[in-house]
Structure formats: structure tokens, C-alpha cells
Design a protein that fits this description.
heterodimer; A: 548 residues; mainly alpha; two-stranded antiparallel ribbon; B: 264 residues; alpha/beta
């Protein structure tokens, strides 16, 4: 009977794929983009694993360690996104008004919500992890059982994450008193932050490059070859596959655990749903709306002041939005902590490597900015929803409206970039030109990424999305792909002049004129390229927003 | 008209320290069109959401055809159709797909495909049968309202709960809705509707209740309320204003008139 509740989900997706009885050709570039990403991921993974395989026994163990880390990281991401999606789908979905008032059973509703949460949160992780795991299988010349084991483990682990998250959410919403229910997101993000921290600390990635930490090499070898996360379902999947990859043996106990866990968690979730959902749902309606009164502040009649104010209070008064700041804080802490624990003085012992990492860190901070911009800046225009008519029909030019939005988001993004670069440079003990190169380059990249997110968000604006997270469709994937390509181009073009300049500076503490000129040309090129990209995409966005 | 379909006794709803509905008691009978009137924020939608099973009462009892909402919510839902004031419809479904989905939710209570013939009839009345295979995202507000009314009326349940039925409807469709409600009532169905429109209440409802600040302050036929208020010839609007204490707005109206007269 669950199929009747899945009918809208299936029809909606089918209607998206087909328009007027034909395949929607607009989706073709997105599908091609997906294929390109999959192929790229496969090639990168293949090259990396092949490199490790070419090393001695240690290389094999390290590649297995990375394999386990990928599983645990994917599982952590799936748990968190399932928790956030679970709150939205179970308690905040607009169709609850239709479904909850009808005589469907709670177990039916649970099965439908679990299925949609699992599909919505897992499909991207599953699709894009397949090429990576496939590369492991090819390079390690996996036996015939690797592929069916992989195909079983991936969705089973995804379903475990979704079922565990839904169970957690149902109990959490039931337990907390009504007036605190709107703070649920805060607790969820806090839990995720702690979980993420624990996962990273338990995996201790820095130990992989720090054999000196161990008294004997054999201790190091045994530490890295230990199974990762034996208490995590993702660890079971990783261990099942690594055991098979190395020894060609199937651990039937692990396979049984992998298959039974989602079933047991789903059953527990269904029981919880039947007993706890309706009281929790009633509470959620009382509290997510809120009867709070708000005072007025910052009075001015300037449009930019009010656009800033509107953006800020819309964000701060929506607990679903601001609570994600905790997630960002957790990510920043993990990000910086990993720089802090890098055993620079022992493992590398050279200033060259520290400067190399600082240069790579520009890309990492760019990646983080792009991910955050996709989440917060990309949906900024669509988030106006039905009230966008007010902007369109007002005498305020759309270009100025977009510019004000840009300024609003550029400020916090610049601060975050400066913090990430400044702090990680401090931990890496960077001084001299690299400090300024990384700050300059990361800032320009950050400003461009914000402009690109706003431009793409305008082109693909979804005014009917239930919330900001829901408005991130294929356009957001396209944005991320273009953003990462832009960051890569900037870094690849800058690698050589930066390397030459830094080599001179480290050797002689001075900067040769020719290197300084090359670096200046690159810097100017970066500014020109960034301006061109930002203006081009924003203009396309503006054209999409203008009445046609 | 004596069989009680909907029975509310001491129904109370508290949101934190704010009590939205206080000790509400009503009995609504078979074949009755019952109007629920009140100023904005009086507690109408909260009451309706409790009847529809979307909110749990903080106190009191609520039963539909003898089944208690607390202990037998499933049966209560089978017997009730709920038409919200701002309906959510799946934008990417067609109208017909939405009707299929809606019928599937009540499949236990429906016999065969009779709902489809009724849906066809209502879609024809509302003049949207040509749009049934278009995506809902292309519908106007009124068309969405007509579709959701169709999706509930076609199910033929004994109790239909309607929150502001005429929002977004053109006069022709409004008239059709009124006639449909009358027909349903004549067939023995009960309609519980909340409205701001005095004209609808006066024209359509057998009995009305007026709620203010979460408390029912009057219940009866329009005639009995007139008698109660000792205004035999007063319109329902005057009665409403008197009963809800909104006559202070006379002062506001006078002030507005004065300011208009003093304009240069």
C-alpha cells in the first residue's frame, strides 16, 4: 500500500523527465555533466590507487585505509543529510496536510518517508562513489564477488543511515517540549558536529603520514592496517570489501550485519512512528510557526539597507537556516584542526612542503566557499518566492538588487576565507610572499564564487521551492562544477610562477625581477578572468530574471 | 437531522502560554451546514485543524460519528474530508494525477471507480475539465481551489470540513460551491465551514457559531441569534460586530470620515 503514497513522488519525477510525452532535452547537459564528473572521479581514483599499488606493501595498506575513510565519510554525510531531510519530510512537508488528514496508516507514511529520504539523500553519494569504488576494484583486480558485494553494501549502508537518522529525529521531536522543537535543528547540527569530529579523530588521517609517532615500524603498520570504525555500519561495508579485495574471502558475518541492520532500524523506526509521530507532528506545528514578537531595529529608507536587513532577519529568524552555522563552525574547526595536527616538522621537515600545502589550501578554501555558496548564495534569488513580484515591479533596477545581494553575501564569505587562510597559514608557519599570494588569490576566488553562485541562482531560480535546501536542483550541480573548474584553472595557471618565485625567495630571501613580473601577470590575469566570469554569469542571471 | 456527526466537548488548545481555543463545546448534526465565524485570530483554523486531525487538543474530547479522535484517529480520518484555505498541491502533478492520488488515500472507503464519475462531474461544473491533464503549476489560484474542492467532494464522506471555501473563487464558481454544499447536505452529509463572509454564512448555513478570542460566544440559527441580540432586522454583519465587540470600529470609521471631509 506504500506505493500509493509514492505515486506523487514517482509521477513528479517522471513528469520532470518527460515533457509533452517526450524526454526533457534540457536534462541532457546535466546528464552529460554527471557522466563527465563520474569519468573524472574514476580517472583520479584510478591514478591515485595505481600510485599506491606501485609502492611496497605499505602502499596497499594505505590505499585500503583511504578506502575505509571514504566509506566512513560518505556515511557521516548521509546521516547528517538524512537528519535534516528527515525533519523536513516528516514534520514540515506541505503535503502532510493532505496525507495526515487521510486514513493512511503511520507505518505506510513511514515507509514512504523513509524511501523518499533514502533516495533524495543517497542517490548522489551512491552514484558518485561508484566510480571511486570501481577504480579500487579494477586496480586491485577484484574477484567476481566484489561487484555484487559493492552493489549490495552501498544501498544497504545508505538505507542504514536514513533509517537511523529518521528514528533519531522521530524520538528527538517527541521528547523535546513543544516550545523547544524549533531548536531541534540546533541539536541536530550540534550532534553532527560532534559526530564529525569524533569520526575524524578516530580515523586520525594525520597518522597515515606520521610513522615516527610509533616506536617500531611494525606498530605503525599494525595501526594503519587495523579495521576502521568497527562500530559503524560503514566500517562493516568497508571491512567486508577490503577483506575480499585482499584475501578473496567473503566475511558472511559482516554481510549479514550489513543486510540486517537497515531492516532492524526500519522496523524500530516504524514502531517509533506509530507511537510517537502524531504527538510530535502536532508539537512541530505549534512551534515551527512561532508566536514570538520581534522588535524593530536599524531604521533607514535606503533600499540597500532594507535588502541587507531583510536577508539578515530572514536568515536569523529561520532556525532551519541559522542552525546550519553550527555545522559550518564544526567544519571550520575540523578544517583548521587538521592543519594544526599536520606533523610538519617530523614528516616533511622542509619549508617547501609547507608552502606547497599553503598553495593547495587556496583550492581547499575555494572548494569550501563554493560548497557554502551553493547552499546559501545560490538559492538567494529563488528564496524570494512568490514575493519576488515586489522587486520586479518596483523602480529598483534588477542589476542594483543583485549587486546589493552580492555585497551582502560577499562580506561574510570574505571574512570566512580570510579566517581559513590566515589561521591555516599560521599553523603551517607560513611567512613571506606565500602569505600574501594565498590571501590575494583566495579572496579573489571567493568573490568570484559568490558572484557565480548568485548568477547561477538567478538563471535557475526556483520560486516554488519549499526551502533554500530544496531549491538546489541540477543548476546547483552545474554551478559547483563550473566553480571548481574555475578554481582549478586559476591554481594551475598560478602554480609555475608561484613555484619559481617561492624557490627564489626560500633560497635567497629575495624575489628575482622576472619571477615578480610573471607573478604580476598571473595576478592580473586572475583578476581579469574573475571579473569576466563574474560579469558574464551575472549578466546571464539578470537576463533570466527580466520579464520576457 | 438528529444524528450527531461531530461532537466537541470542552475542546481546548494551548500553544505554550497562549490558549487559542478555550473549552469549546458543539454538537453538529447529520445533513447540517454549520458555519464557524469569528474575527482573524479567533481560533477558527486551530479548531478546524483539530477536527481534521492535524493538531492534538490540549484538553477536551472530539468525536466524529461516535469515534474518538484520540483513540480511533484512523476511523475519524476515513469519515472526514478536509479542504484547507491555502491548499498545497503537488506542482508537478497534473490535475487528474492529483485526483488519482487523493482517491488512493481513501481507497478503503471508496467502492470501485465511482469517485471518477463524480470528479468528472465536478470538474465539468467548475469548468476545469479541459485542464485536468495539465501540470498544477500552470493553474491559477482559483483553479487550484476548485481542484482541491473536487478532490474532497468526490470522496463523498459523511463530514466535510472547509476552511474559507470561497477564497480565490469567481462569483460563478462561488455559486456552484454553495449549490454543491446544499446538495451534499440534502444527501445527508455534514458540512462544517469556517468563513469570514457574512453573506455565505447567512445564505448557506443552517446554524452558526461565533468564536472570539478562542471562546464560542453564540451558537444558533441566524434568526435565534437576532432574537438573542434583540435586533430583529439587523444584518448578520451587525450581529457579528455586536457579538464580537467590534463596535469600537465605529469610532475608527467616524475618524476616517472626518479626515476625508477635512481633506483639501
Amino acid at each position: 500500500m506504500t506505493s500509493r503514497l509514492l505515486y506523487p513522488y514517482l509521477r513528479i519525477n517522471s513528469n520532470r523527465l518527460h515533457s509533452n510525452g517526450r524526454f526533457n532535452l534540457k536534462l541532457l547537459p546535466i546528464a552529460l555533466l554527471g557522466v563527465v564528473i563520474c569519468v573524472t572521479l574514476y580517472i583520479i581514483s584510478w591514478k591515485t590507487i595505481s600510485y599506491f599499488q606501485a609502492q611496497n606493501e605499505l602502499g596497499v595498506i594505505l590505499s585500503m585505509k583511504i578506502f575505509q575513510m571514504i566509506w566512513i565519510t560518505i556515511f557521516a554525510m548521509l546521516i547528517f543529510s538524512s537528519m535534516i531531510t528527515g525533519v523536513s519530510t516528516l514534520y514540515l512537508s506541505k503535503d502532510n496536510e493532505i496525507i495526515v488528514t487521510s486514513p493512511v496508516t503511520m507505518s505506510e507514511l513511514y515507509e514512504m518517508r523513509l524511501t523518499t529520504t533514502f533516495l533524495n539523500t543517497s542517490w548522489m553519494a551512491l552514484v558518485f562513489s561508484l566510480p571511486v569504488f570501481a577504480a579500487f576494484g579494477i586496480v586491485l583486480e577484484a574477484g567476481p564477488w566484489y561487484w555484487p558485494l559493492l552493489i549490495i553494501s552501498l544501498p544497504a549502508t545508505g538505507l542504514t543511515a536514513s533509517a537511523a537518522a529518521l528514528l533519531f529525529v522521530i524520538v528527538l521531536i517527541y521528547i523535546f517540549p513543544a516550545r523547544r522543537t524549533r531548536d531541534i535543528m540546533f541539536y541536530l547540527t550540534l550532534c553532527f558536529g560532534i559526530f564529525l569530529y569524533l569520526v575524524f579523530r578516530l580515523m586520525r588521517p594525520e597518522d597515515l603520514v606520521n610513522p615516527e609517532k610509533y616506536g617500531q615500524f611494525i606498530e605503525y603498520l599494525s595501526a594503519v592496517s587495523n579495521p576502521a570504525g568497527p562500530w559503524l555500519p560503514a566500517g562493516w561495508s568497508a571491512n567486508l570489501l577490503t577483506t575480499y579485495l585482499l584475501d578473496r574471502q567473503v566475511d558472511w558475518l559482516l554481510l549479514g550485519l550489513i543486510l540486517l541492520t537497515p531492516l532492524i532500524l526500519s522496523y524500530a523506526g516504524e514502531m517509533a512512528m506509530m507511537r510517537l509521530f502524531l504527538p510530535g507532528f502536532s508539537k512541530s506545528q505549534e512551534s515551527f510557526g512561532g508566536n514570538r514578537r520581534f522588535g524593530s531595529w536599524m531604521t533607514s529608507d535606503k533600499a540597500w539597507v532594507w535588502i541587507f536587513k531583510k536577508e539578515l532577519i530572514s536568515f536569523l529568524r529561520d532556525s532551519k537556516e541559522w542552525s546550519q552555522l553550527f555545522m559550518i563552525a564544526a567544519l571550520v574547526v575540523v578544517y583548521l584542526y587538521n592543519f594544526k595536527v599536520l606533523p610538519l616538522e617530523r614528516t616533511f621537515g622542509t619549508v617547501y612542503v609547507a608552502n606547497l600545502i599553503a598553495f593547495g589550501n587556496i583550492g581547499l578554501s575555494g572548494f569550501l566557499s563554493a560548497a557554502l555558496a551553493a547552499r546559501f548564495v545560490y538559492p538567494a534569488v529563488g528564496a524570494e518566492g512568490g514575493s519576488f513580484y515586489l522587486i520586479r515591479s518596483s523602480p529598483l533596477p534588477l542589476s542594483r538588487y543583485i549587486f546589493y545581494k552580492y555585497l551582502f553575501y560577499a562580506v561574510p564569505f570574505t571574512c570566512l576565507t580570510a579566517l581559513l587562510i590566515g589561521a591555516s597559514n599560521h599553523f603551517l608557519q607560513i611567512s613571506g610572499p606565500m602569505w600574501w599570494i594565498s590571501l590575494f588569490c583566495a579572496t579573489v576566488i571567493c568573490w568570484t564564487l559568490v558572484a557565480m553562485a548568485l548568477g547561477f541562482g538567478s538563471i535557475f531560480a526556483d520560486y516554488n521551492a519549499e526551502n533554500r535546501a530544496a531549491s538546489m536542483g541540477p543548476g546547483a550541480v552545474l554551478y559547483l562544477f563550473c566553480a571548481l573548474s574555475y578554481v582549478l584553472i586559476v591554481l594551475l595557471l598560478g602554480f609555475r610562477p608561484t613555484y619559481r618565485l617561492m624557490r627564489g625567495w626560500i633560497s635567497h630571501q629575495n624575489i628575482p625581477l622576472i619571477d615578480a613580473v610573471q607573478l604580476t601577470i598571473w595576478g592580473t590575469g586572475v583578476i581579469v578572468l574573475s571579473l569576466a566570469v563574474a560579469f558574464f554569469i551575472c549578466r546571464r542571471g539578470l537576463a533570466a530574471l527580466r520579464p520576457r | 437531522m438528529n444524528q450527531t456527526i461531530l461532537s466537541l466537548h470542552g475542546l481546548t488548545k494551548r500553544f505554550d502560554r497562549f490558549t487559542a481555543v478555550k473549552q469549546l463545546s458543539l454538537d453538529i448534526f447529520r445533513g447540517e451546514i454549520f458555519g464557524f465565524l469569528g474575527p482573524n485570530g479567533a481560533g477558527k483554523t486551530t479548531t478546524i485543524k483539530m477536527i481534521a486531525g492535524l493538531l492534538r487538543p490540549s484538553g477536551g474530547t472530539l468525536s466524529i460519528c461516535g469515534s474518538d479522535m484520540n483513540t480511533d484517529a484512523g476511523r475519524c480520518r476515513r469519515l472526514t474530508g478536509y479542504i484547507p484555505d491555502r491548499p498545497y498541491l503537488y506542482e508537478k502533478l497534473t490535475g487528474q494525477e492529483y485526483l488519482n492520488f487523493s482517491a488512493s488515500l481513501y481507497s478503503d472507503t471508496l467502492s470501485g471507480k465511482t469517485w471518477q464519475a463524480k470528479a468528472d462531474e465536478y470538474l465539468h461544473y467548475f469548468d476545469i475539465d479541459g485542464w485536468r491533464n495539465n501540470l498544477i503549476e500552470s493553474y491559477s489560484h482559483g483553479m487550484r481551489q476548485k481542484l482541491i474542492i473536487t478532490s474532497i467532494l468526490m470522496l463523498d464522506q459523511p463530514l466535510i470540513v472547509v476552511d474559507e471555501p470561497m477564497v480565490g473563487l469567481d462569483p460563478k464558481s462561488g455559486r456552484i460551491v454553495k449549490e454543491l454544499f446544499r446538495t451534499k447536505a440534502a444527501e445527508g452529509k455534514t458540512i462544517f465551514l469556517s468563513t469570514h463572509s457574512m453573506e455565505i454564512a447567512e445564505e448557506l448555513c443552517d446554524r452558526i457559531s461565533i468564536i472570539s478570542a478562542g471562546t464560542v460566544i453564540a451558537t444558533g440559527t441566524v434568526r435565534s441569534l437576532r432574537e438573542e441580540a434583540e435586533h430583529d432586522n439587523a444584518s448578520l454583519e451587525d450581529l457579528f460586530l455586536q457579538l464580537t465587540g467590534a463596535f469600537e470600529l465605529q469610532g475608527v470609521i467616524a475618524a476616517l470620515k472626518n479626515s476625508r471631509n477635512t481633506m483639501p
